[in-house]
Write a structure and sequence with these properties.
Low-confidence stretches: 1-27, 492-498
Distance between the termini: 46 Å
Helix content: 10-25%
Bound molecules: copper (II) ion
Structural class: alpha/beta
Number of strands: 23
Mean pLDDT: 90
Radius of gyration: 28 Å
Strand content: 25-35%
Length: about 500
Amino acid sequence: MAVALALAGCDRGRDADADDAKPAGTAQSDDSGGSKKGDFGPPQGEPIKAVLTAPPMVPPPVNRNHPAKVIVELEVVEKEMPISEGVTYTFWTFGGTVPGSFIRVRQGDTVEFHLKNAPDSKMPHNIDLHGVTGPGGGAASSFTAPGHKSRFTFKALNAGLYVYHCATAPVGMHVANGMYGLILVEPPEGMPKVDREYYVMQGDFYTKGKYREKGHQPFDMEKAIDEHPTYVLFNGAEGALTGDKALTAKTGETVRLYVGNGGPNLVSSFHVIGEIFDKVWFEGGTKYQENVQTTLIPAGGAAMMDFHLEVPGSYVLVDHSIFRAFNKGALAILKADGPERKDIYSGKEVDEVYLGDRAQANLQAVATAAAAAKTGALTVQDQIAAGKALFAGTCSTCHQANGEGLEGVFPPLAKSDWIAKNPKGVPTAILHGLQGKVVVNGKEYNSVMPPMNQLTDDEVANISTFVLNNWGNPGGRVTKEEVAQIRASKPANASEGH
Ligand SMILES: [Cu+2]
């Protein structure tokens, strides 16, 4: 132990020596000098008003070779905004958005911070910037009642990407309502140039109602204390960065993401499906790691990441704690346009039957039905019995053995008015899958059922007949000829999963 410690001591000594030979502040030097080397003297020139941007945009690079006085003016606004389709939430914001406005300064700058609290706010607020050197990070000095403004000044001594957040009691509640954002303190030489920069920030949200329950949803303190979020989101709303609002880029470009995690509770396993980060300035610090699949971003932490785009298509930003992505909203899209690169990524090349040692034979009812079908003596009862055996283990995984589904996730097949209205929808859903909005018994579902076209026409006919004749559904029968028609009516959905 003593030897190990002595060695460690030795190593540190060597690092420090080696470091003195290198220019200070180089991104990959062993030691940037931290706050001790971050004071470049008094501000020079006229004070500069900081350019603030709403997410997902990032202010332009500072592009300055001297320290300046930078004036930041930020207004706290409490406002109702959509958190999901048809769902609203009263957010508390820095600058009217969640996350709050992006602030960009240079190491050594003197930042004169003006915090205003809108007159129609209900609460006092303040700001704690993790890039501040000084007790509370500005919190006590910036405590501001509704309809007031306050001012404090700090010198940004450490370069890095820093979270800022409200620190007014109860702190967790202010953060949970969206009071966080990012401040980038550029190293003196700036960040390496890239083609595009975007601002993305994760946060967890706690509402009284369930995930996607419509209407205005109040904050749920109990869920927050239990760390059971209803939503986990990028940029404050489900769909904030999908569809028309997706991030965009072109192939051949290098994209940089400035990603923060406001929390208040969860740690993010940040990942872009189909890309590898060429560089990650992990924890928002000075050094980068290369060739990274997933980077951990703690609550109250941040990271920068660069990746070069080769192949066109949609890249999905997720928290790889993956239920959060598909069942709580932590999902965003970056759309890359450009010519195909089949040499790098081919798309699907082969899709053929692979039977393996599929143990179909020991399903007695299925065998009976198959035999009856051959002789033309197949009864509805045979079909129901065979369908029942197939339902278990195929459909029950999601719709549950009793057909009741799972509220908000998998719709019920039991007493389903969707099925009653459209009995042939059952084999269609099995063969072609189902996605987009469906309403079953007054409840809305918006998810994806994958096509299960590996099932034979017989099997689909039997499962459908079983479903139609159970759990209060209207009855009836689906034949394998009908199934063959439905199968032919639309090409199989060649969706590319993760
Ligand atoms: Cu606040």
